[in-house]
């Protein structure tokens, strides 16, 4: 209804590159009536510094170690070194992305605009479904709204629901990059989500520690293909 407000929303730079994915109605009222306060500005600085520390101190440090390990020939590496690289990459990608989102949220606070939360301790998840409820939450919401529900969601039977879930994660893989490794990563998470839905009752009976270990281990292994240059690289 307002081209000026739409232009402001479209050009709101903190979250344009990688997220969080902000819908217009998320900040529509905040754009129309907005009062900048010292309290929120100070909170924004604090949030921005936290995010910057995640990125510069943690993620970049982990990245240096991972790159150094993976630059070596496979036959020269011990199994422990390879698993260390996998674990550190798992931490690297989390602190990199969540740090960026914290910085985006902090900058939003400078202008008294609340950007939706994007991460909620995803590595504490006990199932893949729970993981995707805590990891890049605005992307999950986006695909749920515009892909999953548009395909029928869970309203057309179990088989159609499983098919819709696989389509969502297939599209998610493409969204992350133009490489077969991202598509395979998406398919892996889609298959795990379908299995979780099928055996939901059985999984609910597992010990929480075992459920967490299985989920965290799967996420770690899946990140190998996300990080790889080709599908064959992790295998070799």
Please characterize this protein's 3D structure.
This protein has 236 residues and is mainly alpha-helical. The protein contains 11 helices and no strands. It has helices at 3-10, 24-32, 38-70, 79-110, 128-132, 137-148, 158-176, 180-198, 200-204, 208-227, 232-235. Helix 8 (180-198) runs antiparallel to helix 10 (208-227). The longest helix is centred in the first third of the chain and has 33 residues, at 38-70. The N and C termini lie far apart (56 Å).
| Chain-averaged pLDDT | 90
Provide the low-confidence segments as ranges.
none
Helix count from the secondary structure assignment: 11
Task: Give the number of DSSP strands.
Answer: 0
What is the N-to-C succession of helices and strands?
HHHHHHHHHHH
**N-to-C terminal Cα separation, in Å?**
56 Å
Structural class designation: mainly alpha
Judging from the principal axes of the Cα atoms, what is the shape? globular
**What is the CA-atom radius of gyration, in angstroms?**
20 Å
Oligomer: single chain
Strand fraction equals under 5%
Helical content class: over 70%
The profile of the biggest β sheet is: none
């Amino acid at each position: 209804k307002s081209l000026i407000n739409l232009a402001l929303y479209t050009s709101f730079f903190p979250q344009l590159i990688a997220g969080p994915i902000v819908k217009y109605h998320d900040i529509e009222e905040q754009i129309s009536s907005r009062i900048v306060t010292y309290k929120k500005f100070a909170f924004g600085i604090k949030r921005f510094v936290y995010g910057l520390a995640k990125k510069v101190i943690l993620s970049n440090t982990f990245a240096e170690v991972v790159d150094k390990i993976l630059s070596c020939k496979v036959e020269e590496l011990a199994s422990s070194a390879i698993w260390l690289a996998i674990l550190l990459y798992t931490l690297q990608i989390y602190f990199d992305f969540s740090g960026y989102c914290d910085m985006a949220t902090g900058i939003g606070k400078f202008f008294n605009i609340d950007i939706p939360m994007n991460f909620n301790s995803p590595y504490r998840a006990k199932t893949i479904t729970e993981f995707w409820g805590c990891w890049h939450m605005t992307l999950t919401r986006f695909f749920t709204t515009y892909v999953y529900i548009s395909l029928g969601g869970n309203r057309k039977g179990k088989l159609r629901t499983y098919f819709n879930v696989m389509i969502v994660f297939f599209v998610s893989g493409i969204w992350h990059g133009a490489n077969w490794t991202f598509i395979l990563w998406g398919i892996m998470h889609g298959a795990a989500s379908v299995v979780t839905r099928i055996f939901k009752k059985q999984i609910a009976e597992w010990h929480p520690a075992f459920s967490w270990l299985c989920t965290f281990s799967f996420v770690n292994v899946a990140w190998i293909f996300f990080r790889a240059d080709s599908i064959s690289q992790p295998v070799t």
